[in-house]
């Protein structure tokens, strides 16, 4: 039996030295004990490179911190299997080598019941429990139209070797979790929010209240939400509409006119294209990617002529992908347009909306009435789809080859 170690009574530098020797599960647990303990973790200056939140049958959060990857899965089914909170907290620290308690600071936090348990059961046992949750999902859906976001958490930490633990924070909401992570891992936005299958079982108002700034928003066709309502409540720099989602919009013009940095749309390949030339002229995004556009070379030619006259002034990149066998013919695409062909062995670098450099070889240059230059790249048929790209060389998109 080891003697208690008054960690939080040490100077800040000493606390930080000890905390850095802990694994992620240990110092995350420590961060919930008190304000001073949390501050000690903050001083480690860990930075999350990415926070992705998936909302579907359950809530799933992924974070990458250096070589570590943490997956947080929130379930309802685990709650009923957790031991009483006070017994759990006492048991979890019973065999610790260090006494993490600071009585004064814990009194300030006494309203926060923190329950934590390291699970010794096999991964197989956990997987079986989660499978039971999937089987019971239909019952839950019948009992209530909406759920509050869950507060039972499975944590998977991987860095070559994976470890699992189950947490139960009854007093913490999803909003509390995200706010806690923000301060510990020093991020200010959710990199990717993805609404997937059956996400409508959760309250959209609670999800909205829990979120911070969103960089990329993805929506699949089987969320169960009214997509127009969903998009009116969640705003992002990037929008990805999954297969067939665009066709369900009651007011697609609300998406077309928004100033997205990137708009990606996957149309339903089993139906005629729902994006016409007139629609495309409404788009106000910097980068526009449309899969299954099902456009003809004649339609694209008409779009180019409208662009020459001044349409789509914000557009920097347009990508059209199609799975039909017929290739785009350059002479038809640029019929009636003055252009200059660039040698195929000449590489030019384009800076996209993320600041990343994209290499383009060859292509055909043409100009708008205001002098802006654009280039068409016809990739023909490639891996069962045809692709054509148009980039506009705004000053900030041009990379000096020197």
TrEMBL record:
Coiled-coil regions listed in the entry: 90-143
The F-box domain, residue ranges: 4-51
Matches recorded under PROSITE patterns: FBOX
Keyword Translocase: no
Pfam families, alphabetized: F-box, FBA_2
InterPro entries named among the record's database cross-references: F-box_dom, F-box_Sdz-33, Zygotic_Embryogenesis-Asso
Alphabetical keyword list: Coiled coil
Keyword Coiled coil: yes
Protein name per the record: F-box domain-containing protein
Source species of the chain: Caenorhabditis latens
């Amino acid at each position: 039996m080891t003697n208690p170690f008054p960690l939080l009574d040490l100077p800040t530098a000493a606390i930080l030295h000890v905390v850095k020797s802990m694994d992620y599960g240990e110092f995350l647990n420590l961060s919930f004990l008190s304000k001073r303990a949390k501050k000690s973790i903050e001083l480690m200056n860990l930075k999350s490179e990415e926070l992705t939140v998936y909302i579907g049958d359950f809530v799933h959060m992924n974070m990458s911190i250096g070589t570590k990857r943490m997956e947080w899965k929130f379930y309802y089914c685990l709650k009923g299997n957790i031991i009483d909170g006070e017994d759990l907290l006492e048991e979890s620290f019973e065999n610790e080598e260090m006494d993490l308690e600071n009585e004064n600071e814990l009194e300030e936090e006494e309203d926060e019941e923190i329950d934590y348990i390291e699970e010794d059961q096999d991964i197989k046992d956990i997987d079986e429990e989660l499978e039971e949750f999937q089987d019971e999902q239909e019952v839950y859906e019948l009992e209530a139209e909406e759920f509050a976001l869950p507060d039972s958490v499975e944590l998977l930490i991987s860095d070559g070797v994976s470890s699992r633990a189950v947490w139960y924070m009854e007093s913490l909401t999803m909003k509390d979790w995200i706010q806690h992570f923000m301060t510990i891992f020093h991020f200010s936005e959710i990199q990717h929010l993805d609404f997937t299958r059956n996400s409508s079982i959760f309250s959209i108002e609670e999800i909205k209240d829990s979120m911070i700034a969103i960089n990329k928003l993805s929506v699949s066709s089987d969320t169960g939400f009214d997509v127009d309502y969903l998009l009116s409540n969640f705003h992002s720099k990037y929008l990805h509409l999954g297969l067939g989602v665009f066709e369900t919009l009651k007011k697609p013009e609300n998406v077309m006119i928004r100033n997205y940095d990137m708009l990606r749309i996957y149309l339903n390949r089993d139906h005629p294209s729902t994006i016409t030339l007139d629609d495309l002229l409404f788009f106000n995004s910097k980068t526009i990617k449309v899969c299954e556009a099902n456009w003809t070379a004649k339609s694209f030619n008409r779009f180019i002529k409208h662009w020459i006259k001044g349409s789509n002034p914000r557009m920097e990149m347009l990508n059209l992908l199609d799975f039909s066998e017929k290739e785009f013919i350059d002479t038809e695409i640029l019929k009636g347009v003055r252009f200059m062909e660039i040698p195929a062995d000449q590489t030019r670098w384009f800076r996209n909306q993320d600041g990343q450099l994209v290499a383009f070889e060859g292509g055909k240059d043409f100009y708008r009435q205001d002098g802006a230059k654009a280039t068409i790249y016809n990739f023909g048929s490639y891996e069962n789809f045809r692709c054509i790209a148009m980039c506009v060389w705004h000053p900030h998109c041009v990379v000096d080859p020197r």
